[in-house]
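> forwarded from #structure-qc
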């Protein structure tokens, strides 16, 4: 029989472990939700050794990198609304830059669901696409405090400095190269405000937070401070590796690169092309430095021990590939995005998974990780199984879409739906009203990862086309009913 001393010690130990388990049960992960704009997978951690991205690369070493992650539409507003609502563009009915965040009353945004579950939610920078959109901040629905540096246009991001501006030594109307500090531009100031927000959270450890930090780069104009241009030797920057449209491509799959040329002919010289590719790399490294400042402060404050970090881009970008500049297509360069999740103390570290993922999956993944109930209407799938086992499969296919005209008025004429499997990208262009097939594309990524030959009309691939057609129809293509 236990004596009184030993029994007393036993009760203290039981009480201690009970308290410890209670505290752990009450602890909630914080979320640092980092978004960027127009970033393709040109990063060191994605295998591009030319790109200087040490801070994002370090995050990849601390988390899980999704090598095959895809957006739902290669345009800012539809992609971001899809991420933040957990719904596909056909559900949100957002396919252009002016659609409101909430078309229906049943939408619950990702930060709104966190807010409902006791989190302090804050937006610093561009999370939603806000320009020309009513209710642009989604405040107070999504956020505990009013967002900052979230509203405006990219062309408004002109350098703010004391005194006279240094000389611009860039050579095109899309680029600027000035010797100014990081804080002269939006992203430098956003990083600074994010650091200050983390410091505030550090002083209130009992309050879980969802901090969304939305960087505006590397979107046009390519105007990173000069020191980021200097990181690259212009002679080592490769030319466009597949500048011609794919063979047998339907005309509807291409566009006029309006973002760059505004309806004017493409008159870029070889020197212009090199300058633009150089400017894009400088913008990526500028973005990386700002991400690094935020992540460094997270660690300095030891908040990293209980904070999930999510890093994503709203879509990819064309830098002359397929004769295209900008986004707005269903090609791999537009649809594929960088996507990294780091969960403290759990899952794999430094693993690159080939498991297919959609940005749509961010919503249910974060809810499951944080033990929050999922609201109705979520169309993504939790990637938690992949975070635990990089060989796990959650999606056997993922989907991207884009309308034509790409900047329509009223409603589109045609909608292009694209399905990506481990091997294939298949796209159907459908009449928006009748849903009849206007044209098709098929690319074999085992043998043609540049998507240089459209195989859709070759008889030997008829079974592949039929199978992918059924997969596409079963997943997202359905009659569009007015809401």
């Amino acid at each position: 029989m236990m004596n009184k001393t030993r029994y007393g010690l036993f009760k203290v130990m039981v009480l201690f472990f009970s308290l410890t388990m209670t505290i752990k049960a009450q602890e909630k992960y914080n979320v640092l939700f980092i978004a960027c704009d127009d970033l393709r997978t040109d990063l060191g951690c994605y295998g591009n050794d030319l790109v200087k991205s040490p801070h994002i690369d370090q995050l990849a070493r601390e988390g899980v990198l999704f090598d095959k992650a895809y957006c739902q539409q290669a345009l800012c507003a539809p992609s971001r609304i899809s991420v933040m609502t957990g719904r596909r563009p056909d559900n949100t009915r957002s396919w252009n830059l002016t659609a409101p965040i909430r078309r229906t009353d049943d939408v619950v945004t990702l930060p709104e669901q966190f807010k409902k579950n006791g989190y302090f939610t804050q937006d610093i920078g561009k999370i939603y696409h806000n320009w020309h959109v009513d209710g642009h901040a989604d405040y107070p629905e999504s956020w505990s405090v009013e967002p900052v540096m979230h509203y405006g246009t990219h062309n408004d991001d002109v350098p703010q400095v004391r005194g006279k501006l240094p000389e611009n030594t860039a050579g095109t109307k899309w680029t600027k190269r000035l010797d100014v500090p990081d804080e002269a531009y939006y992203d430098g100031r956003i990083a600074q405000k994010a650091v200050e927000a983390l410091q505030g959270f550090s002083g209130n450890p009992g309050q879980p937070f969802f901090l969304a930090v939305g960087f505006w780069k590397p979107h046009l104009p390519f105007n990173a401070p000069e020191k980021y241009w200097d990181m690259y030797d212009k002679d080592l920057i490769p030319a466009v590796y597949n500048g011609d449209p794919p063979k047998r491509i339907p005309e509807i799959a291409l566009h006029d690169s309006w973002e760059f040329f505004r309806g004017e002919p493409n008159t870029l010289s070889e020197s212009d092309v090199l300058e633009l590719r150089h400017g894009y790399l400088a913008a990526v490294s500028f973005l990386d430095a700002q991400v690094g400042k935020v992540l460094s402060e997270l660690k300095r404050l030891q908040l990293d021990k209980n904070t999930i970090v999510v890093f994503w881009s709203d879509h990819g970008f064309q830098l002359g590939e397929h004769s295209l500049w900008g986004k707005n297509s269903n090609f791999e360069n537009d649809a594929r995005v960088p996507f990294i999740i780091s969960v403290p103390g759990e899952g794999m570290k430094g693993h690159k998974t080939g498991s297919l993922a959609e940005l749509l999956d961010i919503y249910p993944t974060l809810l499951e990780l944080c033990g929050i109930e999922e609201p109705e209407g979520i169309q993504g799938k939790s990637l938690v199984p992949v975070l635990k086992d990089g060989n796990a499969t959650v999606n056997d296919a993922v989907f991207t879409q884009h309308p034509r005209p790409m900047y329509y008025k009223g409603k589109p004429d045609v909608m292009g739906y694209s399905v990506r499997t481990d091997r294939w990208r298949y796209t159907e262009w459908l009449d928006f009203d009748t849903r009849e097939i206007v044209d098709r594309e098929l690319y074999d990524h085992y043998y043609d990862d540049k998507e240089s030959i459209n195989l859709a009309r070759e008889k030997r691939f008829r079974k592949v086309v039929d199978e992918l057609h059924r997969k596409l129809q079963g997943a997202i293509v359905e009659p569009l009913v007015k809401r």
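QC bot note: The CA atoms of residues 44 and 228 lie 15 Å apart. Confidence is low (pLDDT under 50) at residues 4-26.
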